[in-house]
Amino acid sequence: MAMGLLFALVAGTLVSVQNVFNSKVNEWAGRWATTTLVLGMGFAASFLMGLLFEGGKLLEPKPMEPWFWFSGLIGVGVVTCLVQGIKLLGPTYAVAVVLTAQLGFALLWDSFGWLGLDRVPFTLQQFIGVLVIVGGIVVFKLGGERRAEKKTERFE
After folding, report:
1. 93 CB contacts (<8 Å, ≥6 apart)?
2. What is the pTM of this model?
C-alpha cells in the first residue's frame, strides 16, 4: 500500500506541474498546438521508455476490449479541457474541480463495475467524503471571491 500511495503522490505532483506547463504553453501556442505538443511528447517519451524497459514486448498486441485501444483519444479531451479550465478558472480552482469529478466518476465506475472494474459496494462514507470535498471547493471558491472583492474595493 505504501508504494501505491507514493506513486499516487508522485502522479499528483507531476500532474500539477504539467498543468502549469500546459497553461503556459497555451498562452503562446494555443489550445490545439499545446495538446499536440503535450501528447506528442508523451507518446515519444513513453514509446522510448517502453522500448527500454519492455523491449519487443511493447509492440506485441495484448487481448483487451476494442474500445480500450482508443483511450489515447480521451487524452486529447483531458489536455484540451484542462488547459481551458485553468485559463478560465485559474489553476487551483480548475484542478480542484477536476479532482472532484475524477473522484465522483471513479466512485461511479467502482460502484457499478463499469468498464470491466470489479464492483465495489457504494457506502455512506464514500458519499459523505465526496460531499466534503465538494463543500471544500465551494468554501475555497467563495473565500477567493471575497478576497478579490476586498482587493478591488481598496483600489477604487
Report:
1. 137, 140, 141, 144
2. 0.73
